[in-house]
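To fix ideas, we give here one paired sequence and structure record:
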Amino acid sequence: MLVDIVNEQCKVDDVTVCIINDSLNTELLNSIDSRVAVVKLGRKPGSLSFIPFVKLNCYIWRHRPEVIHIHNWQTPRILLPWIKPFFTVHGMGRPATYYKRLKGIIAISEDVKEDVLQRGDYPVVVIPNSIVIKQIKQKIKLERKE
């Protein structure tokens, strides 16, 4: 889904994807449009190093993006306090621990929005999950043998 989003967004604006963790899916990376800048911060799995998080904050400070969009609910805890990202909530019952540190919340459905609002008065908008329909492969109908 992220690949589809950035590949559409780069048609009209500058887009950068920052990847904190070192575990990368090469197939997904290769499907990102070449106009999208990909920044790899190289955090090793299970690492307690704070260096990748410092790199992320430095990158944000240096480039001053207009919009920061995150998909992990814990990311705000590693950002400098004045950095206010948008966060997409993909499911119900997500912890609201860092919601006050967000600029806005994007819910993928009305039900998810209501779930977020049960935790507090947060700025939430609904943007349904987007999919590129032409990329969905049609399932071949198989005959049943008896």
In short: The chain is about 25% helix and 20% strand. The mean pLDDT is 87. Residues 96 and 120 are 8 Å apart (CA to CA).
